Amino acid sequence: MKAYFCGMLQRLVFISILLIAGGLSLYANSIEIPRLKGEIQFDGKLDELFWKQMPLFPTVQHVPYNGEKPSEDERIYLGYDDQYLYLAAELQGANIQSPSRKRDEFSLKPDYIGLIIDSYHDKENALGFLTTPAALRSDFTVVEDAVGDYPINNDWNTFWDVKTVVGETSWTVEMRIPFSSLQFQDNDGDVEMGLIVMRLIASKNEFDTWPAIENAWGDWSPFKPSVAASVTLKGVKAKKPVYVTPYVLAGASRVVDEKAPFEAMNRSEINAGLDVKYNVTSNLTMDLTINTDFAQVEADDAQINLDRFNLFFPEKRQFFQERSAIFDLRVGGSSRIFYSRRIGIDDNGRLEKIWGGARLTGRVGDYDVGAINMTTRDDNWNPQTNFSVLRLRKKVVNDNSYVGIIGTNKFGQNGDYNSVYALDGTFRLKGNNIFQVRWAQSFTDGYDNNPLSLKPSRFFINLEKFQFSGFTYDLAFGRMGQDYNPEMGFEERGNYTSLFGILGYGWQNEPSSSILQRNLRMYNFTYLNNDTGLDETTNIGAEYVISWRSGHYFTAFSYFRRERLFEDTEILRDLTIPQGLYSLGVYSLGFGTPGANRIDYNFQIRGGDFFNSKFLAIEQGINWVVFPDLTLGLDYNFNPIFIENGVSNSTRYVQLARLRFLYTLSTQVSLSGFIQASSEGTVGLGNIRFRYNPREGVDLFLVYNNRADLDLLVDQADFNRGVPEQVFIAKFSYTFRL
Fold first, then answer.
1. How far apart are CA 377 and CA 385, in angstroms?
2. Cα–Cα nearest to 130, from 95, 98, 83
3. Contacts of 476 (CB under 8 A, 6+ apart)
4. CB-neighbour burial class of residue 88 (10 A; exposed 0-12, middle 13-18, buried 19+)
5. Angstrom distance (rounded) from CA 553 to CA 205
6. Which one, of 401, 38, 82, 410, lies nearest residue 235 by Cα?
7. d(CA 196, CA 571)
8. Could you give the residue ranges of the DSSP H alpha helices within 43-90?
9. Running DSSP on this structure, what letter comes out for residue 351?
């Protein structure tokens, strides 16, 4: 098997070299960013004379009136020195909004200004840096050229600073980003990057950008690296600091033995660990960790699953965020070859102990490279399971095409193993047409593991025209063999052949219309069981979306679905659906108010067939800025299911409620949390986080989590069984720059 894997890697590299095409000159059509002519008093005031002598970077409206002059005056400057890239701006605004000071707050309620930086100039991935009048720092990564429902990852953090000064009708900002926080490639000190300047005037639902960007790809158009301006910086030499971050942790927990006699066990813990980040070169970053801890990570939002397939939860742990798009190899929907939550998180979503590991990401020439190796442990520090990932891909043909390979390996102390390799290619054709192909095989302890068979294999091909305006399509075909077993990946279902298709058309309205854009999509997908050749799921539907320049939106969709159950299946707790063929029709309406409003509201109602029953689903959410430093949010899903079993009828109420709060004393101190309760399993979860962050790299977290069984707590008034888990943790980390 090892020889087979190595042979495939050699063949892929050889094919990649043959596909390389001649490129443009490094600095063709690139704008040179001016070097600063003096020292900055970093205070957000812009009172240095040289700022007035710097060239302006003029923005234009992206929405609501694409291409027109901004509705408020803006003076935006870019510059750099030996250590930092700077953005400075003077921004007029009659109604300046700044309702939060929480690190990484990302919503439409505050005014923003910032940068999207394609530091490798690969026109696919980028780093985002945004700030508000309150000088909060929100940083994130952009993946896959901002294609998809949510193509950013705002759990990524790095080192940078910002200062602001706010007046009655204007605010000024100075932002500086160390070159050591940007991975890039240089040519004797000269660097070419992609750059977008972005400003949001929240009260007007107005995005302004430099350069001018078409509103052709939906809400994420101004985040697309492929439409960024090409800029050049000369004489840049990246520093290579070593960031050493030790942490200490003290915690106490109360956990109930879930077997009789349900006695509570109180435990205390004192622990320590170490993280190290080192820029091996300007374009390669190494992360090392010992006794890794993620106690401060926010808990997952609960989800209601009215289906029979696996739920997908996003990765929130900081260690896995650095250039995570390298490893993100998707094979349709949420399915992917590597899913980092398989490392150190059990099937119930609880954190496992990690002995330590290493992570290397970056670019060498035209190659993106990534490697991860981590090992979990038991309470006695005995290694349990080793996880490793290796990723390599190369740009070919043009700026948005590449071929690559990824390998994952999971090895247990008892000798059991699971290995997966995958080959992939993504090719940007003419215009916005993209063709993707993936091939994967798994090798698992105890399986047949025949590399010439389709049983342990997975393949996926996709042809898509991604844009909002005009005619669009998305066509895909995939197959997953019955023995394909990606234990470090994610799959929604198994042993199937899939056919998928979307046809759509989008309209951009004239500036005189209050409607911004409309979109109509018709879709069909079918999953066939490989063993029987019969369809498991067939879905045919249509969706219509309208968005207004004000920020309001309306949606309507309906679909006809056929589900075939090959055996009796438990869909909800204590609700089993008999095997058989079911025809389901579903209809839905929804609307939402502008996210910039002090109170914003969204609502969706769905109804129709639920296997042999009927259902109604009402989902609504509200966010309320009570006063500038306090925000509350409430989500409530109400799903009555009207069960008809031929003998007697009944109604099952499936519900989920979540209350969120955020209180910020300053950009350094915040208190956030949520309480959520679900009728499925009658589970209640609570999470409260206090954070003191006096500067980047120094953090004090106080975290409280609990888990409750609401039925036992209410009906039996038995606290031990009703609240089986309570955890309190205090964690302090301090970063030294060497």
1. 7
2. 98
3. 332, 460, 461, 462, 463, 464, 498, 499, 500, 501
4. buried
5. 13
6. 82
7. 46
8. 49-53
9. B
User: Measured between alpha carbons, how far is 454 from 205 in angstroms, rounded to an integer?
Assistant: 51
Helix (H, G, I), strand (E, B) or coil at 113: strand
Q: Among 552, 515, 660, 635, which Cα is nearest to 108's? A: 552
Supply the mean pLDDT for the chain. Answer: 87
Q: What is the pLDDT of residues 513-572, one digit of tens each?
A: 999 999 999 999 999 999 999 999 999 999 999 999 999 999 999 999 999 998 888 887
Give first-to-last CA distance, the chain, whole Å.
43
Which helix (H) or strand (E) is 2 found in, with range?
helix 2-19
3-state SS of 223-279?
HCHHHCEEEEECCCCCCCCEEEEEEEEEEEEEEECCCCCCCEEEEEEEEEEEEEEEE
CA distance 384 to 354: 9
Q: What is the pLDDT of residue 142?
A: 93
Looking at the DSSP assignment, which residues form a beta bridge with residue 193? 231
Strand pairing of 206-210 and 599-610? unpaired
CA torsion 545→551→552→556, rounded to 10°? 10
Give the span between the Cα atoms of 93 and 135, in whole angstroms: 16
288 closest CA partner among 352, 238, 339, 244: 244
Q: Measured between alpha carbons, how far is 350 from 346 in angstroms, rounded to an integer?
A: 5
State pTM to two decimals: 0.84
Task: Tell me the fold of 33-233.
Answer: Immunoglobulin-like (2.60.40)
* Residue that has been written with the tokens 């949510």 in this structure: 150
What residue ranges do the domains of the chain occupy?
A: 33-233
Residue 61 and residue 73: Cα distance in Å, rounded? 12
Mean pLDDT lowest for which of 190-194, 515-519, 576-580?
Answer: 576-580
Three-class SS of residue 317? coil
Task: Report d(CA 424, CA 405) in Å as an integer.
Answer: 6
Helix (H) or strand (E) holding 148: none
Q: Enumerate the β-bridge partners of residue 179.
A: none
